[in-house]
Amino acid sequence: MEIVRIVSEAQELHQDGVDHNATVMDSNPPFFATYKSLFSSCRGSRNEEAELLAVECDLPLIDLGRLNSKLEAKQCKQEIITAAAEWGFFQIVNHGVSNSLLGRLRRQQVNMFRQPFKKKVLDFSDDSYRWGTPTATSLKQLSWSEAYHIPLSSANKLARTSRCVIEEFCVAMAQLANQLVDTLAEGLGRDGTYIRENCRRNTCYLRLNHYPPCPLPGEVFGLVPHTDSDFLTVLCQDTVCGLQLKKAGRWVTVKPNPNALIVNVGDLFQAWSNGLYKSVEHRVMSNPHLERFSVAYFVCPSKETFIQSSAQPAIYRKFSFGEYRQQVQQDVRLTGHKIGLTRFLA
Q1: Can you name the residues that pair with 236 across neighbouring β-strands?
Q2: Per-position b or e across 232-265, b if 16+ CB within 10 A of its CB
Q3: Rounded distance, CA 116 to CA 101, Å?
Q4: Phi, then psi, of 18 in degrees rounded to 5
Q5: Which Pfam families does this UniProt record tie to the protein (predicted)?
Q6: 292, 325, 333, 343: which one is catalytic?
Q7: Is the pTM of this model over 0.85?
Q8: CA distance 225 to 227
Q9: If pLDDT is split at 50, 70 and 90, which confidence band does 13 have?
Q10: Parallel, antiparallel, or unpaired for β 250-254 and 55-57?
Q11: pLDDT tens-digit profile of 271-298?
């Protein structure tokens, strides 16, 4: 099938969505119009990587309430350490973030994304609202998603109703993240002081994600394959399937668990742990019928913070977070994808 026909049919589906739910569709970014040249140059070829079948899996599930038990705390910590080393991902329950707070945040998030597209673009003056992939040179590099990327230092720019719930959520997430950082550092025979002191409010950030229905799910990812460039990410997702991760060279689909948060190791923790903890490649698949929402809290240091393992011999050379980010951005511009830690081998 010619790509022109595929796009035409997709646009008809898109228009059909407008007829049934004008408010929602009017709020979605103009993917087809903006990336018209990518669709036109595709020549109808399928994104084979996006179409690879993935098995469904349950991530390791850890009850953090056991950390409060003298009898179970040690075993609970070991489960966290093992999951970070073997999977790079795990789920947590009894994490201290209330369902009421999560519900209020989700309602606020939906309201923010249901605004008209033009209003979202004007919401922030510092490029906090983002969508698509400006650097994409092919469809496999395009993410069919939009997000509010909110540095916690600039959260006061939000409307008061949004700011209040986001402030409360970030306080709860910071406490949770510090608890996890301490446990993972303990697994290395270290403590989490260095990470906690360098990953403060003014360097961490929140990302509110929205994945609109995509008429071409076999052509475009919701979010392209990548690893996270932070120490740790804590994710709250809805019940719509989409998240996949690489396990033993194969993509696996994560079953949504409405009662759990997902934690994944970032590049910096992999380097700091000398490769013990794994920053695992993951992606989000697009969905032709359902929209998907998620919220990610990223534990990031200042640009001046140096990352160095205490283990010898060290796999990675010493580098600053600023240097790492600059290299990642340069690689994405030049190659269309992130290369990451292999650039920093000792």
Answers
A1: 295
A2: bbbbbbbebbbbbbbbeeebbbbebeeebbbbbb
A3: 26
A4: -65, -40
A5: 2OG-FeII_Oxy (PF03171), DIOX_N (PF14226)
A6: 292
A7: yes
A8: 7
A9: very low
A10: parallel
A11: 999 999 999 999 999 999 999 999 999 9
